[in-house]
Amino acid sequence: MIVTSALTKRYGQVLAVDQVDLDVRAGDIYGFLGANGSGKTTTVRMLLGLVLATSGEVELLGRPMPRAAAEVLAHVGALVEGPAAYGHLSGRVNLSLLDAAGRGGALRTRKRRISAVLEQVGLDSVGRRPVRAYSLGMRQRLGLAAALLRTPRLLVLDEPTNGLDPQGIREMRELMIELHKRGSTIFLSSHLLAEVEQLCTRVGVLDRGRLVLQDQLADLRAPTGRTVVGTPDLAAAQALLDGRSQLQGDRLLVRGADAAALNAELVAAGVRVAELGPERRTLEEVVLAATDAAGTPGVDAAADRQRARRR
Predict the structure, then answer these.
(1) What are the chain's domains?
(2) Cβ pair 29, 202 in contact under 8 A
């Protein structure tokens, strides 16, 4: 669905995107992670032909971009950096103008399709209100509605939850899941780890313009080979497992342990077991490891706080 080869963008002496090789496959919900200023939006704009690459190649839906933009973009919905709209016109009229400009479909179905997408994004009750009266979150919803005027094969979203309250973020996430179920491949650019971890199946991490990580989320969060043990008898458990365990907060990490055998050993020694299971790295830990190796900060404030605690 999206393939790039050595995609690079320079602005004078500034190297904004550096030799990026993206691989977004049909059926993915692909989370494109990176700190603000890491080059995510520049990359997205190159994918859509809004910015020309300095070097490298881009393919969308198997066709070269921007050369095949007229053919390809008819099947792509996009929300990049925040939607543009005529403030004195209603959301419904703005969508009608976009549809008439060629981003939608047949004239005979325009009214029905506009009503449907406004309902999808939760703007059906305010679709006749002037856009200048919309909040930032409502403008984001209107931008997504524009991206959905046709049911897109590929949906490219740059920070789509910007300006939304927690309820709006949850609704947006549920909408993306529903669109994915209907057959859309989703490319989600974000700096929010929690958003990507809850939604995405595949992840790429951009760090100072370089793609430092790209893999299935399930593989990145696979068991590490250690077992997590939570117990109110922490000192006794440490003594019993001396040489095999490592203290992490109020839990023990036991190397190479068989969970059933470990549980039996602890219980036989009179150690109460409150938690026992395989250790899995969080997405935050995965991203920190990748960006630490590259010598840059983490993706969001939570990652930065964790780094500060480690110091």
Answers:
(1) 2-217 (3.40.50.300), 222-280 (3.30.70.980)
(2) yes
Phi first, then psi, for residue 284 (nearest 5°) are -60, -45
Would you give the end-to-end CA distance of the chain in angstroms?
41
Helix (H) or strand (E) holding 145: helix 136-147
Residues 6+ apart with CB under 8 A from 280: 221, 222, 223, 224
Containing 95, the helix (H) or strand (E) segment is helix 91-98
In the three-class reduction of DSSP (H, G, I as helix; E, B as strand; rest coil), residue 23 is classed as strand
Contact in structure between 266 and 238 (CB atoms under 8 Å)? no
Closest among 70, 52, 49, 72 to 60, alpha carbons compared: 72
pLDDT in tens, 242-273: 889 999 889 999 998 789 999 999 999 999 99
DSSP conformation letters of 251-306: EEEEET--HHHHHHHHHHTT---SEEEEEE--HHHHHHHHHHHHT---SSHHHHHH
CA distance readout (Å), 311 to 213, 270, 304:
24, 36, 11
Count other Cβ atoms within 10 Å, centred on residue 135: 12
Q: Beta strand 223-230 with 245-248: parallel, antiparallel or unpaired?
A: unpaired
Q: Exposure of 142 by Cβ count < 10 A (0-12 exposed, 13-18 middle, 19+ buried)?
A: buried
**Tens digit of pLDDT for each residue in 194-223?**
889 989 999 999 999 999 999 999 999 988
Summarised one tens digit per residue, pLDDT across range 114-142 is 999 899 888 988 888 999 998 888 888 89
